[in-house]
Design goal:
Helix content of chain A: 40-55%
Catalytic activity (chains A, B, C, D): beta-D-fructose 6-phosphate + ATP = beta-D-fructose 1,6-bisphosphate + ADP + H(+)
Strand content of chain A: 15-25%
Order of helices and strands of chain A: EHEHEHHEHEHEHEHEHHEHEEHH
Radius of gyration of chain A: 22 Å
Cofactor (chains A, B, C, D): Mg(2+)
Strand order of the largest sheet of chain A: 3-2-1-4-5
Binding site for substrate (chains A, B, C, D): 127-129, 164, 171-173, 223, 267, 273-276
Oligomer: homotetramer
Binding site for ATP (chains A, B, C, D): 11, 73-74, 104-107
Number of strands of chain A: 11
Binding site for Mg(2+) (chains A, B, C, D): 105
CATH topology of the largest domain in chain A: Rossmann fold
Number of domains of chain A: 2
CATH class of the largest domain in chain A: Alpha Beta
Distance between the termini of chain A: 60 Å
CATH architecture of the largest domain in chain A: 3-Layer(aba) Sandwich
Structural class of chain A: alpha/beta
Largest sheet of chain A: 5 strands, mixed
Chain lengths: 342, 342, 342, 342
Amino acid sequence: MTRIGILTSGGDCPGLNAVIRGAVLKGTEVHGQEFVGFLDGWRGLVEGDVIPLDRSRVRGLAQQGGTILGTSRFGPYQGPDGGAQNIQKTLDRLGIDAVIAIGGEGTAAASKRLFGEGIRIVGVPKTIDNDLSHTDYTFGFDTAVEIATVAIDRLRTTGNSHKRCMVLEVMGRHAGWIALHAGTAGGAHAILIPEHPESLEQICEWVTSVRDRGRSPMVVVAEGFTLPEMEEAYSTKGLDGFDRPRLGGIAEVLAPLIEKHTGVEARATVLGHIQRGGVPTAFDRVLATRLGMAVTDLVAEEDWGHMVALHGTDIARVDFDELAEPKYVPDERYQEMRILFG
Amino acid sequence: MTRIGILTSGGDCPGLNAVIRGAVLKGTEVHGQEFVGFLDGWRGLVEGDVIPLDRSRVRGLAQQGGTILGTSRFGPYQGPDGGAQNIQKTLDRLGIDAVIAIGGEGTAAASKRLFGEGIRIVGVPKTIDNDLSHTDYTFGFDTAVEIATVAIDRLRTTGNSHKRCMVLEVMGRHAGWIALHAGTAGGAHAILIPEHPESLEQICEWVTSVRDRGRSPMVVVAEGFTLPEMEEAYSTKGLDGFDRPRLGGIAEVLAPLIEKHTGVEARATVLGHIQRGGVPTAFDRVLATRLGMAVTDLVAEEDWGHMVALHGTDIARVDFDELAEPKYVPDERYQEMRILFG
Amino acid sequence: MTRIGILTSGGDCPGLNAVIRGAVLKGTEVHGQEFVGFLDGWRGLVEGDVIPLDRSRVRGLAQQGGTILGTSRFGPYQGPDGGAQNIQKTLDRLGIDAVIAIGGEGTAAASKRLFGEGIRIVGVPKTIDNDLSHTDYTFGFDTAVEIATVAIDRLRTTGNSHKRCMVLEVMGRHAGWIALHAGTAGGAHAILIPEHPESLEQICEWVTSVRDRGRSPMVVVAEGFTLPEMEEAYSTKGLDGFDRPRLGGIAEVLAPLIEKHTGVEARATVLGHIQRGGVPTAFDRVLATRLGMAVTDLVAEEDWGHMVALHGTDIARVDFDELAEPKYVPDERYQEMRILFG
Amino acid sequence: MTRIGILTSGGDCPGLNAVIRGAVLKGTEVHGQEFVGFLDGWRGLVEGDVIPLDRSRVRGLAQQGGTILGTSRFGPYQGPDGGAQNIQKTLDRLGIDAVIAIGGEGTAAASKRLFGEGIRIVGVPKTIDNDLSHTDYTFGFDTAVEIATVAIDRLRTTGNSHKRCMVLEVMGRHAGWIALHAGTAGGAHAILIPEHPESLEQICEWVTSVRDRGRSPMVVVAEGFTLPEMEEAYSTKGLDGFDRPRLGGIAEVLAPLIEKHTGVEARATVLGHIQRGGVPTAFDRVLATRLGMAVTDLVAEEDWGHMVALHGTDIARVDFDELAEPKYVPDERYQEMRILFG
């Protein structure tokens, strides 16, 4: 019987528990696999900190946010017990034949390296930011977009009542997918993303044109967006952690600038952590469940070094390094929506 | 300047207004098109009943459920003024150059015929049932699945408190997509769909096995599912309308049968119309907006006889008759999830 | 140290777990009490079926629907081990000093009788129907109203798109509180409740007047409403269980009658069990938590025979029999809202 | 026929439109009153900027957030046309017999003064902060609490996955009602409100005790809370606007302090404006509707100088100055919940 260890790494993401459940239920039922969970991501693997994962432990998890295994930003090459050789010894000691790593870009890169050094490892891509290549979507993204969209719906009425410009900052340090989708869904009048520079002048033009036809401007901005004219000044503020939303972020910089240049009262809201926690949407639960089920096939077929991914409505397999490529919002997708601005 | 008439036909579907908004905003801005709306689906076209649709009329519609144009089950070949020739005369009289028809299977088939008889028509596929081919998803489906999933989450606690089997009937007369996705998302112990027969014996086996490990069974059934052993008796009840959920439907037949054969108290809930109304999910708003925008390109390019569709993350074009083919849940998708039953 | 047994009886109700949590946390912390839970309502008490309830067991329960103790319609005078004398013996055997009974009208009445026969018992009123006297609200009611209101919001768009009359049946066998509040919140054009007869003629007049000004009528009906002109015919259908919504209920009777008499297409939806399960609203969580905390004071003060209740923003104490009096929608409250009909 | 002008003043608040609708529907139907709306609060009254408000204009507004009349922080004694004498002239010129002012503390105080100077004015209390005396609740509060509670539910899973302390800042400059209710509903381990000082030491003790039993601490803090030991330093930051949540507020001060003193990683979220916009809860819609209806009775009876209020389940009347008294969380209510901390 193949004994598999699962770990969840990086920032919290709605659907992690659904992946774990899907893997354990299918793996035990179809492939006769056995499962344990590494606690707190790679730390649990490196330190050999495991808990048993049987069918009864994962029942009812599809709708539960977070991860029962815990997560951290610890890496597999970190600490005295890190590195492929040590990890293989730990796996041997624990009688674990294979590893399923659920994580983002960093996890994919580290998994690739471990695989190259002989670890039997497969993966499931995870990021609310949706910025991994060779998969249509990652689970967690749909939930984050839904939460941001509901926030836009709420801010809109207040904007209209006060004739204010509302500026909502959503997650997306390097890629603007959440802003693009939530902004489109919420009918934003400007969507600002890291991939596409827009000048303050242009932003104020959109705001003014909305105000001029008697409506209240809604601006959605990804946390990683910067104004070209202020990049230098701004960069001195620093980015002090990977997934921590910068309270005092770009929305707080933008709102007073917009107010100053347009005369439209502007208010900033930084959505922050509520985008990455809680009950997943049905879309994310289905996607996460299917990915979790499919990754057990990779183990059964000893197809190491691959991750599962979504292509259309099919679950596909891709190399670790393909997935780790960043997926930015392509210019044509941004231009498509930019038509709706203003 | 091209003058376009838009119509929305068939059952209500979250996202219709977002399609209309996307088309009008892009069409006027990019292609210099002008828009009117036909009221109540094909009726408005056949009877020449139109309203103006300019940018200000469609602002703020992305998040609004229903259709500002109204909808009906009227067909374009219906009544004394129906048929391609009459319709062409009406279009000429109103100075309308092209038609955008937003509708389901029936609309696609009728549009195909009108196109064959010379009408300049293009289309946007619409069905909460997701049962149209050559598109990954139709807008409205994600919202219906989310609503059904939230209902499962609620029913689950009551099932557990009372140690009851809860039977939830969702929409899906011919295809079980809503049941498949919501059942998977909600962690159902049995999902019953029209495409795949399951015997009462098998259903009761799942229910019993869940009960035996101390949990409360959750059964999700599509309205079009029938038990093989009772098809004859059942069919005499008749289906009296196209989109009307059968109160007194299959869930009401199943629940007492399950209770009788397993001894587990069972309760039926028929979700009904709340699946097809109200605020669309962000996913559906984005999809509907993109489809509405893309369909104006077809008109601009005079690419008559086609509909827009979702392929992966791209908006594609397909023939009317391709789309009108029914898309059933394929056996492998059902078997994939069937592993999780019981 | 006082050892207390808690039970939850009757239909499922959002907030039950919050009551249990509030009682255990305050009781252990402030009064030095110890807790066990009787399983499945009175059955657990009668049969001596208990589980330990300490602080760690109840942590995190405020937001969880249902009851971890299970519930049933079993009564304390039922079976060979029922009755005050037997129950006292069971309590003595288990070393339990006092009982907290969380339940509705039946539970209050039974508790009153047990108290009269010497059982040290106090209570917490519970019903989603809100039909208990001497308390402003019962927990669970706010959640049920919110769910029904969201359903009305969804049905409204479909009604408008199709120009249909939507008829929504909500819970309320004897009292129309859910219908009154949800109908008011949802802007219903007619609210029909058991306490106040309305003729079919009057209902159709409201429907027609709404239709005549170009809108789509929304009718909200409590399951216990009957049309005076058809009471006899209707009563032959029978009411076969206490909390089972009658699929094939009054909405299904009303919709075709309205359609027949007004010519307005009408559709029925029976909301059913989703009204009584799942995550409680914040209002219900706060109310349930406060009631659970307060009931431990009654035990500490040996104030047997009383229940806790909500008066304004205060938690008060009332006799079992005061609470068991049914609380109907008073005529002035119905007339107040009736102004908005049509 | 009495002609009434309605205005909505101060910060946005879910339920404003429901009040307007309730007043217009009852006033026209029962009292034969006629209505206009002043735009942007007191500005519309002072400048005589009005729109007609008939039944058709207010239909469907119960579920709509914001205010169709607009709102502002303009006061009735502001500008060259302000003051009772000028306002009376404006009312005379417009043929308006009475004013209904919907607003908070400032509005109540200003209305009191206007009433004293002869203006025929009545009022409806409005604040999401719930800090007005002589009414059990104000509309908007329940919605704000629900939104904050849902945010806590989401943050909780992320806290647990990362073993972090999550610090959520909610509205409440002077009174901690939102924090108290949402914190209770969300099962917070510490609730910090302006009315009740807690030392950093005490807060860290709660955080540590939660961490020590293996759980993730949740701290809910009202924006107006300050740490006694840092009040001086903190006050220099200034409060630059009335309803603007301080991004960079108390949560951002607290989180790093907690992390530093306990070693538990801590993250801040500032909920901000999404607490005061969007669709109202059913509770707030019912309350707002009833208040709107009842305030027309005051006009009909010429009972000037009063506001409507909620006492238990009844709508009562209170003096302007009674209502304007601030309502703080009483010590016993805070102590009641403080039992649950840690």
